[in-house]
Specification:
Blueprint (H helix, E strand, L loop, with lengths): L1 E5 L6 H12 L3 E3 L1 H14 L6 H9 L13 H10 L3 H15 L5 E5 L2 H5 L5 E6 L2 H14 L6 H17 L12 E4 L5 H18 L1
The chain binds cytidine-5'-diphosphate (2 copies).
The site of one cytidine-5'-diphosphate has 15 residues, from α1, α7 and α9.
C-alpha cells in the first residue's frame, strides 16, 4: 500500500505522513528533505540558485543528513523552492523516490507531487491544506523552537512566495490530484489532524 501525502508548506503533511506510517507500519520518506539537501549543498558552496547547472551539480553530490538543523532554515527553504523548479533536478531525484514508493510492503511519502508524479497509482492520496496565516504561525513557532527567530511578516511572506512558486512552475507543480482526499487542518490541532487523516485513509481502504 502506498500513501501519498501532498500539500503546501507547513500544512502539517509531514506530521500526518509520519503518523500514518507509524499507524500502518510503513516506512516514510519526507521528499522535501531531498530538495532541501540540494539547496543546503548549493548554499554552502555559495552556488547560484539561478543556475540550473550549479543546482544539478549540487543534486549529484547529495549527502543527506536529516538531523542537520540548517535543512529547515529559512534561506534553505527559499533555495529549495527555487532549485525544485528545475526539471533536471527533479529528474535526478525521481528514481530514489520511486524506488522508495515501490518497495514490496508499501510506503508513505510526503511532498508536493507524490500523488501526481511520483506515485500516481498510490492506493490513497491525501492533500493537506491550511490557511497561509495558520501555516505561518506554525512555521514561526517551529523555527523559534529551533532557536531561529524570524519575524512573522517574513515567515508569512515566504509562505506566500513559496506557494506561488511551487504552484506556478511547469515541472510537477503543487496541485491536488483529481482522486485525492482533501484535509484542511486550519482548525485542527496535531492530534485532531492525525485522527482525521487516519479516518480518511481507513474509509478509503474500506471502500477499495
Ligand atoms: O516543510 P515544507 O512544506 O515547508 O517544505 P518541504 O516539504 O521540506 O519542501 C521544501 C521545498 O521543496 C518546497 O518549497 C518545494 O519547492 C520543494 N519540494 C518539491 O518541489 N517537491 C516535493 N515532492 C517536495 C518538496
Ligand atoms: O510537513 P509540513 O511542512 O507540511 O508541516 P509539518 O512539519 O508537519 O508541520 C509544521 C508545524 O506545524 C509542526 O511544528 C507541527 O507540529 C505543527 N502542526 C500544528 O500545529 N497543527 C497541525 N494540525 C499540524 C502541524
Amino acid at each position: 500500500m502506498v500513501i501519498a501525502v501532498d500539500g503546501p508548506a507547513a500544512s502539517g503533511k509531514g506530521t500526518i505522513a509520519r503518523a500514518l506510517a507509524r499507524h500502518f507500519g510503513l516506512p516514510h520518506m519526507d521528499t522535501g528533505l531531498l530538495y532541501r539537501a540540494v539547496a543546503l549543498n548549493l548554499w554552502r558552496w555559495g552556488g547560484d540558485p539561478a543556475s540550473e547547472f550549479e543546482a544539478l551539480r549540487a543534486t549529484h553530490e547529495l549527502n543527506l543528513d536529516p538531523s542537520d538543523q540548517e535543512l529547515r532554515s529559512e534561506p534553505v527553504s527559499k533555495i529549495a523552492s527555487a532549485v525544485s523548479a528545475y526539471p533536471s533536478v527533479r529528474a535526478a531525484l525521481l528514481e530514489r523516490q520511486q524506488d522508495f514508493a515501490g518497495q514490496p510492503g508499501g510506503a508513505v511519502l510526503d511532498g508536493r507531487d507524490i500523488g501526481t508524479v511520483i506515485a500516481p497509482d498510490a492506493e490513497v492520496k491525501l492533500f493537506v491544506t491550511a490557511s497561509a496565516e495558520v501555516r505561518a504561525v506554525r512555521r514561526q513557532k517551529e523555527l523559534d523552537g529551533r532557536g531561529m527567530h524570524v519575524r512573522f511578516e517574513d515567515v508569512l511572506a515566504d509562505i506566500h512566495a513559496r506557494d506561488e512558486r511551487d504552484s506556478s512552475r511547469d515541472a510537477a507543480p503543487l496541485r491536488e490530484a483529481a482522486d485525492a482526499l482533501h484535509l484542511d487542518t486550519s482548525e485542527l490541532d496535531v492530534d485532531e489532524a492525525i485522527s482525521a487523516a487516519i479516518r480518511l485513509v481507513e474509509e478509503k481502504l474500506a471502500k477499495a
